[in-house]
Amino acid sequence: MPPAILPTIAVTSGEPAGIGPEICLRLFERALGTLPAHLLVLADRELMAERAQVVNFHGQLRDWTPGLPAAPGTLDILHSPLVITSHPGQLDPANSPYVLHLLDRAIEGCRSGAFAAMVTAPVHKGVINDAGVGFTGHTEYLAEKTATPRVVMMLVGGGLRVALATTHLPLKDVSAAVTQESLEQTLRILHADLGRKYGISSPRILVAGLNPHAGEGGYLGREEIEVITPVLDRLRAEGMALIGPLPADTMFTPPLLAQGDCVLAMYHDQGLTALKYASFGNGINVTLGLPIIRTSVDHGTALELAGTGRADPGSLFVAVDQAIEMVQRAGLSR
């Protein structure tokens, strides 16, 4: 019988001056025939060969072509050339088009069915903006490139799933961004993808308030009364299991967490401070609502570690593992 066709997982190597190339090389530790997937790293071939010496890489780097089966002891590279030579820890805006091309190529492959999922190593938002490209993050970029009107950022780790009603916004803009329409859309996406991607048939979602003490009955703000509660009541009437709005300072206590499958926080640091404390080094980012499967590390480029071989690949390993699980749940074969 011919060997089974393994799903191809595209892993973008991210900012070349950061730790992305090195942690992608460490995937070799997971790619020795033990995974039910073919891992493909999108990167500059020469860059990966240089960084391979840093991480004491003992395998073979091979140029990938469509249809090429996985091989023991081999990490496949889909070559994309750097604009200029990259040095560990030294950002250069000239390579920003390269970083974005890696993302575009992975998105294209996922949309065409050539790749079953994409996993992203960290990029550096600042240097991309320095290149004259407005870039607020992977999540927003993927939404734009797939023409998805709304996506939801969810981080997973430490036994927690934490989704965000708003993502990379200044704190002063959060209240205006939390509208009944946006919150309802977020909850619908979250509810649906907890079923599709995690197999939770009737997800229970803990919903945070925006203000201290969830508004204290209106004395500390009226967003809970005028925005959040009406949406929760409307969706509960449709059968969704929604608990809240809850005071954020007690929402992450064990008795409350035991009642839910996921937390929805109103803004970035409200939810992610607790999650990163619980899962530092092994948390991941999942983009919900996309027409493709995408997971990511939950950390940055760590320029100070680039070129040292000391970067921890744990988050990338988890991101790959969860992408494979989602592919299997979705029944995708390529």
Number of domains: 2
* Beta content: 15-25%
**Helix and strand pattern:** EHEHEEHEHHEEHHEHEHHEHEEH
Q: How many runs of DSSP E, i.e. beta strands?
A: 12
Assign the CATH architecture of the largest domain: 3-Layer(aba) Sandwich
- What does the average pLDDT come to? 93
Which stretches of 5+ consecutive residues score pLDDT under 50?
Answer: none
Could you give a short account of the major beta sheet? 12 strands, mixed
Q: Distance between the terminal alpha carbons, to the nearest Å?
A: 18 Å
What's the tally of helices? Answer: 12
Shape category: globular
Residue share in helix: 25-40%
- CATH class of the largest domain, named Alpha Beta
What CATH calls the topology of the largest domain is Isopropylmalate Dehydrogenase
CATH superfamily of the largest domain: Isopropylmalate Dehydrogenase
Based on secondary structure, the structural category is alpha/beta
Rg calc? 20 Å
The side-by-side strand order for the widest beta sheet comes to 3-4-2-1-5-12-11-6-7-10-8-9
Describe it for me?
This protein has 334 residues and is α/β, with parallel strands linked by helices. It has 2 domains: 193 residues, Isopropylmalate Dehydrogenase (3-Layer(aba) Sandwich); 131 residues, 3-Layer(aba) Sandwich (Isopropylmalate Dehydrogenase). 36% of the residues lie in helices and 18% in strands. It contains 12 helices and 12 strands. The chain has a 12-stranded mixed beta sheet, sandwiched between helices. Helix 8 links the parallel strand 8 and strand 9.
